[in-house]
TrEMBL record:
Record's bilayer topology term: Multi-pass membrane protein
Keyword Nucleotidyltransferase found: no
The UniProt record lists the keyword Transmembrane: yes
Principal location listed in the UniProt entry: membrane
Membrane-crossing residue ranges in chain numbering: 24-46, 52-70, 77-98, 110-130, 142-162, 182-200, 207-223, 229-245, 252-271, 324-345, 357-380, 392-410
Residue ranges occupied by any O-antigen ligase-related domain in the UniProt entry: 216-339
Record-given protein name: O-antigen ligase-related domain-containing protein
Residue segments, region Disordered: 414-441
Compartmental location: Membrane
Keyword annotations from UniProtKB, A to Z: Membrane, Transmembrane, Transmembrane helix
Length: 441
């Protein structure tokens, strides 16, 4: 069995790499796969994103470069999916060429953004090179890891919160990762409760028990965070869990939890409904967005050019508009917005296919990306950044969906070609026979 699987792996690399049967190539692919997984682990367990960036630099970048050097077939970089992925980083990087550093609150050299652009290019290549060999199996394995990681991380965060007297004070919980940022960690566990719905469909039973535990811990965490989008994610996850559940009685209990128990618990704890609590956040954001759009209107076509940090002055200075589209608009104008819309339209096109929506892969990744975009419209800045929360919100699910689409299109193309080739054989033989008969005649 192992011999046949290894021979099939070698045949799948034939024509793609020099010496495809070498242990060097297979070892690099395994190392690169582990590197991608380590980055996901880091988002859940490491307190500082700087350590995630260190993993990225020391493992993913060198192994990807070595694989690319060893590769013969580079045609995957000509696909529209790669162009779509790299379009936003490319436009933002080019916009630094006309940015005025005198307007920056915090400055960076232009070369910094060209380095970040290379990081994005190599990240897409890394994901493609691994998924090309591992396929959907890798994405299913990722979801299992994310369920286990999220449950451990969320449980640890709640323990730390309790030891600090949080359950008595009911202050907003910050978690053990991502610099203990309230909104970012709440989104992390919002994704986690969605992944747990996938786990409810797994065998053996221990996966379902782990997923129910993770779902419960995640919902408790999200309520304590008092963060609005994760609350919507928790409610959506509970409804999806009801659909996945095999027990009708459990479905009724779960739906009642969304309709009655969750809102009632929130009112009891905080004296308000979830989406109405801390309502001043809405008015502050509207004012912030209006102020940010003033810069866009001064140069609507290409923007003012990207600088590292350009604080926005209201009653206090804020580092960004808390809306990635508005931030892209003020720095890169309509050119940047067009690139962002291309990415959104590409994922919408993938998601509108019935087979994509009704299967866990890529269906759960579509949910990941959809809620990530919603968070980017409320919490985030322009997305040309080194590995950070924006990657887990946006770039990782976007890259997964685009690579998945690219590989599916390549498989469909090769199947179509293989079906056409046999049909050419009779016509060629008939031509030869016809020519032979004519020569005899």
């Amino acid at each position: 069995m192992s011999g046949s699987s290894s021979s099939s792996a070698v045949s799948s690399r034939a024509g793609l790499y020099r010496q495809p049967n070498s242990r060097w190539v297979s070892g690099l692919i395994q190392f690169l796969s582990a590197s991608l997984l380590l980055i996901l682990i880091g988002f859940h367990l490491l307190p500082d994103v700087g350590r995630i960036q260190t993993i990225f630099y020391l493992t993913l970048l060198p192994s990807t470069l070595l694989l690319l050097v060893w590769r013969q077939d580079w045609r995957f970089l000509r696909a529209w999916q790669f162009a779509c992925f790299i379009s936003v980083p490319l436009v933002l990087t080019l916009s630094t060429l006309w940015g005025d550093s005198a307007t920056a609150t915090i400055k960076r050299e232009v070369s910094f953004y060209f380095k970040v652009l290379i990081y994005f290019l190599l990240f897409y290549c890394a994901l493609y090179l691994v998924m090309e060999q591992r396929g959907d199996q890798m994405l299913h394995r990722w979801l299992r890891w994310l369920i286990a990681l999220g449950t451990v991380s969320c449980g640890a965060s709640l323990i730390v919160y309790g030891l600090d007297g949080g359950f008595g004070k009911l202050y907003r919980i910050g978690g053990i990762s991502m610099q203990n940022n309230i909104d970012k960690t709440a989104m992390l566990y919002g994704f986690h409760v969605l992944f747990c719905c996938y786990g409810l469909s797994l065998e053996p039973r221990r996966w379902r028990w782990l997923s129910w535990t993770g779902l419960g811990l995640g919902c408790i965490y999200i309520v304590l965070s008092q963060t609005k989008i994760p609350i919507v994610m928790a409610a959506s996850a509970i409804c999806l869990a009801a659909v996945v559940s095999r027990s009708k009685a459990l479905r009724i209990v779960v739906v009642l939890g969304v309709v009655a128990v969750l809102p009632a618990t929130y009112v009891l704890l905080y004296g308000d409904l979830p989406l109405l609590h801390r309502g001043e956040a809405y008015s502050i954001r509207l004012e912030l967005w209006a102020k940010s759009l003033e810069g866009f209107l001064q140069s609507p076509w290409i923007g003012s050019g990207l600088v590292h940090k350009q604080f926005i002055e209201l009653d206090r200075a804020l580092p960004h508009p808390h809306n990635y589209l508005i931030d892209v608009a003020r720095f890169a104008g309509l050119a940047g917005i067009a690139a962002c819309l291309w990415q959104l339209a590409a994922i919408a096109r993938i998601g509108l296919r019935r087979d994509a929506l009704l299967s866990w892969v890529p269906g759960i990744y579509l949910l990941w990306f959809g809620f990530g975009v919603l968070a980017m419209l409320i919490y985030a800045q322009q997305p040309l950044v080194k590995p950070s929360y924006i990657w887990i919100f946006y770039w990782i699910p976007l890259a997964v969906l685009l690579v998945h689409s690219q590989l599916a299109a390549a498989r469909t193309g090769s199947q179509t070609q293989s079906q056409r080739e046999p049909s050419l054989v009779p016509s060629l033989s008939q031509t030869v026979n016809h020519a032979t008969s004519e020569s005899h005649g």
